[in-house]
Amino acid sequence: MKEFFGIIGGMGTVATENFVHTVNQLTETHKDQDYLDYVVFNHASIPDRTAYIFDHTKPNPLPLLQSDVEKLNDIGVSFIVMTCNTAHYFRSELQKSSKAPILSMPNIAASACQTSTNKDSKVGIMATDGTISAEIYQKELIDKGVQPVIPDEPHQQLVMSLIYDDIKNKDFVNREKYHQLITYFFQTLACDYIILGCTELSVAQEQEPYPSEYIIDAQHELAKYVVKHAE
After folding, report:
1. What is the distance between the alpha carbons of residues 36 and 217, in angstroms, rounded to a whole number?
2. Which of 7, 69, 84, 167 is catalytic?
3. Which residues pair with 123 in a beta bridge?
4. I need a surface site. Which of 19, 113, 122, 159 has the fewest CB within 10 A?
5. Residues 130, 136, 198, 17: is their CA dihedral positive or negative?
6. Which element (helix H / strand E) includes 5?
């Protein structure tokens, strides 16, 4: 009998839907029973993670995330994933109350940038202000001997505008803005790889893809890992 795994989502909802769709696409199936068994908590009311990281007087996402972990403990899931990069700021604390391992999307994505022939790669990080400020990806990349690269302030503001103004607020991927940012990382910052370290950016790559094998979509890497791990 296959075991269930747990998905803590809703951060945001479209990104969670995209993750589940990717997992289903990557699963080799010939009948209904071949799909993976999983439980999705689309907990859309979890407060904004970036807002709390910058201002601890803002609503704290941790109690609601912990309540989801406790429910998944009761179900007895084999492992847990969170479909939000910035939520990994709370991962260590959540792991203390989880009976199952909570997979690290940043670790899995960072591993995809490390090769035996190019250990000195420069890796651009496209993510929310919260993820950048907490150095969630910088730490993972440095641990793997890879050089992290973050954008200057005007381009970081453009990243945030793409994530919040366009995708979260309008459910719209601004192709020109997204491709401009990718070009900036590759050409101006001379990055060898770019990590899409926000699930809204995974939506952008799916809907308005930039053709490059050196774009590491963190959510897609997590989906690949989950399918292999669950099977």
Report:
1. 21
2. 84
3. 148, 193
4. 122
5. negative
6. strand 5-9
pLDDT digits 0-9 by tens, 88-104: 999 999 999 999 999 99
* DSSP code, position 44: T
Task: Show the tokens assigned to 165.
Answer: 């103004």
**Cβ count within 10 A of residue 95:** 14
Q: Any catalytic annotation for residue 84?
A: yes
Catalytic residue among 198, 201, 204, 226: 198
Q: Active-site residue 198, yes or no?
A: yes
For 51-85, write each residue's pLDDT tens digit. Answer: 999 999 999 999 999 999 999 999 999 999 999 99
At 228, list the tokens: 């292999």
| One-character DSSP codes across 182-217 | HHIIIIIS--SEEEE-SHHHHHHHHHS----TTEEE
